[in-house]
Amino acid sequence: MLDTPDLLRLLHPFLAVIWVMPLIGVATYFAIQTRQRRLAVNTKAKTRINPLVGTDHVRVGRWLAGSVVGLVLLGLAHPIIKTLIREQVWASDPFRVVFVALVYGFTLAAVVVLYRARTAQWRGLFATLTGLGLWLLGMQPGVFRRGQEWYVSHFYLGMVAAMLMIFALATLPEIYTSKRWRLTHAALNTVAVLLFISQGITGVRDLLSIPLHWQEPYIYQCDFANRTCP
Ligand code: HEM
Ligand code: HEM
To answer: Relative to the alpha carbon of 59, which ligand is closest?
Structure first.
């Protein structure tokens, strides 16, 4: 049976699978259609693609960007809070607990303001603050970052994907202004799609290697380098 710590751990993978991954599929589908329609119109070829696909892509894209930021906040919340409790940080270093809570609050506020910001300066500022908040939380003790193998790290690849989503949201009006912006957007987010695919792979790998809560005391006695257990 899964107990509460296990269920809390599953919240992030669960939302990734039933909400964020489908959104990625829809956003990418509309993105390809937007591009194909533009190419067809440019060459005056007939196309059955609806002129509103660009708008549809942006509508889904706006949901996607915020959802990925939320998903990262959730993925980080579990290991951070668990570590604060296990190490009884409230007794030894209450400032750290207050700091983490404040950064959470500020990061959430920063994304909300980013959605409402109109001028380039405000969008730039709140995108930077959102990204900064995610990195400050990501660097907290207890987060498993896999620094030695950063190229297959669920943490680092996921953080880069989140930064690309924040950047897309922050530069939304610019994407319409020139061909250079549009192609930059398309190129960066093609990388984002590859990173999201990697998140699917590294995420299920990590799920497989994390023990159930009640098994932890036994599993963590194992020698992971030599693959032996007492
Ligand atoms: C899976 C992620 C995404 C991919 C693969 C993607 C890709 C693309 C592509 C290929 C285009 C068409 C470029 C062209 O016509 O030359 C496009 C257009 C656009 N995208 Fe994205 N994008 C993604 C996410 C986002 C997000 C998160 C936003 C903003 C919130 C966004 C905003 C836009 C805008 C404003 C356009 C211009 C639409 C138009 O021309 O009507 N995209 N994107
Ligand atoms: C959009 C895709 C995703 C992004 C951006 C993302 C991002 C993150 C981040 C930043 C963390 C915290 C760092 C860490 O512990 O590695 C995390 C944790 C985790 N993610 Fe994801 N993730 C995504 C999808 C998935 C999927 C599809 C799964 C599995 C089906 C998954 C499983 C996990 C697990 C098991 C953890 C550890 C949670 C814990 O320690 O409690 N993730 N994710």
So the answer is: 1
CA distance 97 to 78: 14
Say what the pLDDT of residue 58 is: 98
Neighbouring CB atoms inside 10 A of 14's CB total 12
Residue in this structure with the two tokens 């190129």, named with its chain if needed: 187
CA of 177 to the centre of ligand 2 (A): 35
> Which ligand neighbours the alpha carbon of 170 most closely?
1
Domain range holding 88?
Answer: 4-219
Atom of ligand 1 nearest to the CA of 171: 29
Task: Give the model's pLDDT for residue 189.
Answer: 98
Q: Is the pTM of this model over 0.70?
A: yes
In a domain, 174, yes or no: yes
| pLDDT value of residue 230 | 87
226 belongs to a structural domain:
no
Atom of ligand 2 nearest to the CA of 207: 35
Number of structural domains, the chain? 1
